Automatic annotation (TrEMBL):
Species this chain originates from: Alexandrium catenella
GO MF annotation, one: fructose-bisphosphate aldolase activity
Coiled coil location: none
GO BP, sorted A to Z: gluconeogenesis; glycolytic process
Protein name: fructose-bisphosphate aldolase
Keywords: Glycolysis, Lyase, Metal-binding, Zinc
């Protein structure tokens, strides 16, 4: 099963009244949701992938926060918190899209 967190759904998971100007509420919600899924999935005896939904350029602070959480989780558990992420810069000019994606690919 794949569980996918959108930026808006992540903010909702954390609570829509939290500050989210820099996507901090969305980061908190996505990470809390990922931890929840990881903790509950074994009770069902099923493998689960935790994935982030399309991330446009304006949502990069959310993406960065999830990558930071992946790094910290990896240090403690030997695997990232999220199974995969979807960077979607299709609204940006091709050259900018490729340049930004190349930087994130290095991470």
């Amino acid at each position: 099963i794949m569980i996918q967190f959108s930026e808006g759904g992540s903010a909702f998971f954390a609570g829509k009244t939290l500050p989210n100007g820099k996507k901090e509420g969305s980061v908190l919600g996505a990470c809390a949701g990922a931890h929840y899924v990881r903790n509950v999935a074994p009770a069902y005896g099923i493998p689960v992938l935790v994935h982030s939904d399309h991330c446009a350029k304006k949502l990069l602070p959310w993406f960065d926060g999830m990558l930071e959480a992946d790094t910290e989780y990896f240090k403690a558990h030997g695997e990232p918190l999220f199974s995969s992420h979807m960077l979607d810069l299709s609204e940006e000019p091709h050259e900018e899209n490729v340049a930004i994606c190349a930087e994130y690919f290095k991470k």
